[in-house]
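To whoever is on call:

I kicked off a structure prediction for a single chain this morning and the downstream step that reads the tokens threw a length-mismatch warning. I double-checked the sequence; it's 252 residues and nothing unusual in it as far as I can see. Pasting both halves so you can look.
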Amino acid sequence: MRIWITLGLTALAQSALAASSPSWDKQDIRAQLAPRYYTSLSAELGAKIDRINVREGERFKAGQTLVSFDCTLQEAQRERASASLGVAEKVRAANRRLAELNSVGRLELDTSEAEVAKAQADLSLMDATLRKCSIAAPFPGRVAEQKIREKQYVQPGQPILDIIDDSTLELEFIVPSRWLAWLKQGYVFEVQIDETGATYPAKVSRLGARVDPVSQSIKVAAVIDGRFPSLIAGMSGRVQLAPPVVTARSSK
């Protein structure tokens, strides 16, 4: 008698697994919805916040100004740097004319050239500082948390807004590492979300790069297949995912 071993990846085979597979394959695989992109926007200079243009939960577009600072002092410093550059350029022009008439030494001419370069650097520094007087959105999304209020003074590096891009929500969960024998990128399954009570289609987008040698598990990331306005980041649920059932058939 000959025996053939076949692998069934159908939904029926997966449901049959609940009655036939060992207990470790019946474990409750929990997953959490997370945004694909998220970040914390921080101040790059010490200044008072003049205006925050979005509130928690509101949406914004890429490039939109989210936070504006009161940069009155920095603007005055730029005007001073610009005036210094004008004076240095006039001195240089005069020394160049005198040099043509052999009425000024080489040292004086070189010094005036250096003063112009220094003034230009100071002006460039103030221009770069003024560009930090507002924070633009690096991607479209929503405000997850506002950490600072308007008219507060912030220090460089102090977080102001937590933002997320929820245009694509990812599922993050952990599975036994032995599932790597059949769980591949693109594998289709379903997930039941606790907060909505509904089931949604999902697809494996990537597998972890390392197996945990202690728990013999690996991280998996998947994407919700479609747009569902009821889903938001932070929701969690149960992954309807199980190893393919192994069946045996015989023939004489």
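Update from on-call: the warning came from a stale cache, not from the record. Cleared it. Sanity check on the structure: The chain has three helices and 14 strands.
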